[in-house]
Design goal:
Length: 225
Amino acid sequence: MVILLATRTSSLALPQTPADQLDDPCAQYYEYRNLKQGQPFGVAPRMVGGECTSSLIGGCEVSRELSHSTGIEMGVSVDVSGGFDFAKIFNLGVSAGFSYSWSTQDGTAVGTASECPEGGLHCGAIATEQRVQITGERRLPPGGLGCPGDNDWHAFDFTAPFKENKDAQPSVNFEICLLSCGSAEYPDSCDIAYPADGPQIMKVCPSSTIQPCSGGFGGTCGTTR
C-alpha cells in the first residue's frame, strides 16, 4: 500500500494566538499608527472532515458537510505584550483605505466536499484558506491610564481571515484529497489516481509527520505498510 503525502509549504509561519493576547482590559486604550495591509495569500492546506475508500465501481462520500474554523493569528516578530483591539484596527484600516476585508473574530466556513472517485482510492478532505497580513505600531498613550508598559511605539504584525466582503464567511476552499492507494484489496488503484496518459486526478493530502512520496507511481514508491 502506498501512502501519499503532499509537501507542506506556506509563505508565512502562523502560530496560534495566545489567549491573553485577545482578552486584556487595557486593549481599549492602545493607540495605533502606520497600519499597512498586504495582498491576500493562501496558506498550506489543512485536513478537515473524515475519510473513506471507494470501490472499483462506485465513489464514496467523505462527509456531507465540511467546516473549518479560523481566526486572528499573531506573527512571530511581535515584540509587544497584552491584548489588541482588533475592531479598532479594522476601523482605522477602513479609514486608511485598506483594499481587503478581513475578520476580526473567529469564524467558521462551511462547504460540501466532492465525492471520492471510484477505483479503490482512500480519500480525505482539505481546507485551503485565504488570509491577509496587517502590520503597524502600537503604544500606550502618555500616562498609561494605569496599564503596564511604556509609551514607546512597538511594531506588531498579525494575519487575519480574508473575506470577499464584510458580511461574508472567511474565504476557504474545500477539496477532496488522496490519502493512499495501492492497497492489498485494490492493488492497481495508484494507476487510477496517477494515469499514464494524464495528470493526477486529485491533490495529495498533507501530513506533518511523514515525508512526501516522490518519483513514479503504481505501487513503487512512498512509505509502505
